[in-house]
């Protein structure tokens, strides 16, 4: 999609992109929706009139009237199954926002999946699968998958997803999981089109949130996000949480993106496909054959 007519740029906030949108009667689930970018996404959707449920590992005491919280552990497929089975009625939007980053050592889920891939991709795959009927019932439903620019550094290695043979690297594992997230949107957008479901992925940009808890101080300093005394600072290229949540809010509720599916967005715009560089979406993250094979591998685990 070139020459986009979407009137928002990198510094728009989640509230900005939903200004004038009427989401009354819309039901939304936001994973990790009670903290960080998820909270800002929830806040904007609530302000636009949506009924928002935050799916969280543990309920948080937050001052956001109207936000419901239900337990969900993405690393535990039984927990994901319980959430989906207890959901009643239609679901208009699923925002797959929760995630982990840069886990220092190789860890595996109960199913033997590398932990970042298990959390960021497999848990959300299982959740979307479990909620498919509710999404289809809503008609014109949307799946929004929060990915990262880190996907450009690491395609999905279908021959060694869990670092059984290659040396584990936390950033490669993170990048792979974020490529997988985009492939989830690609596959869902194709497979579930007849259900009236669209799916898109996004890069929120650089934002200081709890996602950086595993990132060492030297890396934070190299990013310009920490001074020599260990204090967090925000470089000019970082966004505020409200700005970082804007693209997710746009894809979840804006009429400007109605009907668009299987795409990757950044800075509130559809991204160009690029072979290298600091922006855009890598071809490996949009490859339909890889998307289908990864879907099939996930189905073998989820059932």
Automatic annotation (TrEMBL):
Keywords recorded for this protein, A-Z: Oxidoreductase
Superkingdom of source: Bacteria
KW Ribosomal protein (keyword) present: no
PROSITE patterns according to UniProt: ADH_SHORT
InterPro entries reported for this sequence: NAD(P)-bd_dom_sf (IPR036291), Sc_DH/Rdtase_CS (IPR020904), SDR_fam (IPR002347)
One Pfam family named in its UniProt record: adh_short
Record SUPFAM superfamilies: NAD(P)-binding Rossmann-fold domains (SSF51735)
Family assignment from sequence similarity: Belongs to the short-chain dehydrogenases/reductases (SDR) family.
Protein's name in the database: SDR family NAD(P)-dependent oxidoreductase
Record organism: Nocardioides humi
């Amino acid at each position: 999609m070139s020459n986009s007519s979407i009137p928002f740029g990198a510094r728009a906030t989640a509230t900005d992109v939903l200004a004038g949108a009427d989401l009354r009667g819309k039901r939304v689930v936001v994973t990790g929706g009670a903290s960080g970018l998820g909270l800002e996404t929830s806040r904007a959707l609530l302000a636009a009139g949506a009924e928002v449920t935050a799916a969280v590992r543990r309920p948080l005491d937050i001052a956001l009237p109207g936000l419901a919280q239900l337990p969900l552990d993405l690393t535990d497929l039984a927990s994901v199954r319980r959430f989906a089975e207890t959901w009643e009625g239609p679901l208009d939007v699923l925002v797959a926002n929760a995630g982990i980053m840069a886990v220092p050592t190789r860890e595996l889920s109960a199913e033997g999946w590398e932990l970042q891939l298990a959390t960021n991709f497999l848990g959300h795959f299982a959740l979307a699968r479990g909620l498919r009927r509710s999404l289809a019932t809503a008609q014109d439903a949307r799946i929004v998958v929060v990915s990262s620019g880190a996907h450009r550094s690491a395609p999905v290695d279908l021959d060694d997803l869990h670092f059984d043979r290659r040396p584990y690297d936390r950033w490669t594992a993170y990048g792979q999981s974020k490529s997988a997230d985009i492939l989830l949107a690609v596959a869902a957008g194709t497979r579930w089109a007849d259900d009236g479901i669209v799916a898109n992925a996004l890069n929120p940009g650089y934002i200081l949130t709890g996602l950086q808890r595993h990132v060492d101080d030297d890396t934070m300093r190299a990013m310009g996000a920490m001074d020599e005394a260990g204090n967090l600072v925000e470089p000019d290229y970082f966004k505020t949480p409200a700005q970082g949540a804007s693209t997710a809010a746009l894809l979840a509720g804006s009429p400007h993106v109605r009907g668009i599916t299987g795409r990757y967005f950044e800075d509130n715009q559809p991204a160009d496909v690029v072979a290298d560089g600091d922006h855009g979406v890598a071809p490996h993250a949009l490859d339909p054959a890889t998307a289908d094979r990864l879907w099939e591998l996930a189905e073998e685990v989820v059932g």
